[in-house]
């Protein structure tokens, strides 16, 4: 019964993902040069595994989807790492983090979120350090997002990444709430090798 329910939930998550893919603008987490004008969102993303696992690969953030409900537009922030700075040009407005996708080698997990922040016009907006704590791979797997403030340290790292950085006004727009727990669903495509399809017992 659990396996059937998990299959149904995975298919539903995949269908929702395919539905929104056509209307999502993809943006890199770190552009080649730091934007010299317009609104910018910056911070740090980190994913950690909180329990034992039999999988060969540690979890990484594949992407984070953001929804600007001021202009009714979605953005996909491409990460592809277990830890990364981000400095993304985004239109001003009120945002929500709507979903995140985690990868572990060939495995993919998707979680829905409801975390809000604001991007102010013509400013560099600090959104915080987003730590995604991922539980061991089993049925009813949980993901906990914690938002913390490390603005001085993170801005220093941005300065090291962009040597030609120009002075700009920085504003603290920390994402809220600072802690949220949600369910992480495993979604297709699964790895093609048969033993990859095995799931840890619940």
Task: Write up this protein.
This protein has 202 residues and is α+β, with helices and mostly antiparallel strands. It is 15% helix and 47% strand. The strands form 2 sheets. A 6-stranded mixed beta sheet has the order 1-4-3-6-7-12, with helices on one face. Strand 6 (93-104) and strand 7 (107-119) form a beta hairpin. It is globular and about 50 Å long. The two termini are 12 Å apart.
List its salient traits.
six-stranded mixed β-sheet, 47% strand, 202 residues, single chain, alpha+beta, 2 helices
The residue-averaged pLDDT reads 84
Biggest sheet statistics: 6 strands, mixed
Strand content: over 45%
Count of strand segments: 12
* Helix percentage: 10-25%
Separation of the first and last Cα atoms: 12 Å
Major sheet: arrangement of strands: 1-4-3-6-7-12
Shape: globular
Number of helices: 2
Can you summarize this structure?
With 202 residues, the protein is an alpha+beta fold. Helix content is 15%, strand content 47%.
Layout of strands and helices, then pairs:
Elements: H1 2-21, E1 24-28, E2 40-49, E3 60-68, E4 73-81, E5 83-89, E6 93-104, E7 107-119, E8 124-134, E9 142-148, H2 151-161, E10 170-172, E11 179-183, E12 185-187
Parallel strand pairs: 1-4, 2-8, 8-10
Antiparallel strand pairs: 2-5, 3-4, 3-6, 6-7, 7-12, 8-9, 9-11
């Amino acid at each position: 019964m659990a396996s059937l329910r998990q299959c149904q939930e995975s298919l539903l998550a995949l269908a929702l993902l395919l539905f929104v893919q056509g209307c999502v603008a993809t943006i890199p987490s770190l552009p080649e040069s730091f934007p010299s004008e317009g609104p910018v969102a910056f911070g740090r993303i980190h994913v950690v595994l909180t329990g034992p696992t039999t999988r060969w690969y540690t979890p990484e953030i594949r992407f984070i989807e953001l929804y600007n409900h001021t202009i009714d537009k979605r953005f996909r922030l491409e990460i592809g790492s277990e830890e990364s700075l981000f400095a993304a040009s985004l239109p001003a407005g009120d945002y929500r983090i709507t979903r995140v996708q985690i990868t572990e080698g060939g495995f993919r997990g998707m979680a829905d979120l409801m975390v809000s922040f604001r991007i102010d016009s013509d400013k560099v907006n600090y959104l915080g350090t987003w730590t995604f704590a991922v539980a061991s791979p089993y049925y009813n797997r949980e993901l906990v997002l914690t938002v913390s403030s490390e603005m001085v340290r993170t801005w220093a790292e941005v300065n090291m990444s962009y040597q030609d950085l120009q002075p700009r006004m920085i504003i603290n727009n920390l994402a809220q709430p600072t802690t949220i727990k949600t369910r992480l669903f495993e979604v297709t495509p699964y790895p093609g090798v048969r033993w990859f399809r095995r799931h840890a017992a619940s």
